[in-house]
Amino acid sequence: MDLAKKYGEPFKIFEAINVYKNMGEITTVIEAKRADSDRLSSEISNKEAELSALNNFIERANMAIGKIEANYERSLILQTISDLIYETETTEIKPETFLRTSLLVLTGIHSYARRHSVNLGNWDRDVDRWLKLTIEILTSIL
Where exactly are the structural domains of the chain? Predict the structure, then answer.
């Protein structure tokens, strides 16, 4: 009797039964949506792991490229030095490249000579001062 009062006329009782039936269908849909959500979450996690692996690969590749570029720059410098020594008449380089290359060579000679001056015999303070002065002048030009 309380139930009849709650729903009122018989048509409303049928509506309540229909809603209850629809709730089962809604529950099924919700469960399917949860399963889809779980599957998508798993796919997102997998894609994030793939992205992380790709980022690591890119980072390693960039480091390798940086080493290659550094080696390439060094080889260009060595080629320029070789050209200046062996092909003086035909070598054409930009003035700034010439100055930088000269500075690198003189700095290297100066550094080596200071570390090994005992073994170099006639290497004296005048040559050392001359190199140091030349390096300072080239540095101020650049």
Answer: 1-92, 94-142
- CA dihedral angle for residue 27, residue 30, residue 32, residue 37, rounded to 10 degrees: -160
Walking along the chain (142 residues) 10 residues at a time, the average pLDDT comes out as: 59 64 76 93 96 97 96 92 90 88 86 77 71 82 76
Residues 6+ apart with CB under 8 A from 131: 106, 109, 110, 113
**Cα-Cα-Cα-Cα dihedral of 40, 42, 44, 47, to 10°?**
-130
CB atoms within 10 A of CB 34: 10
Residues 6+ apart with CB under 8 A from 135: 103, 106, 107, 110
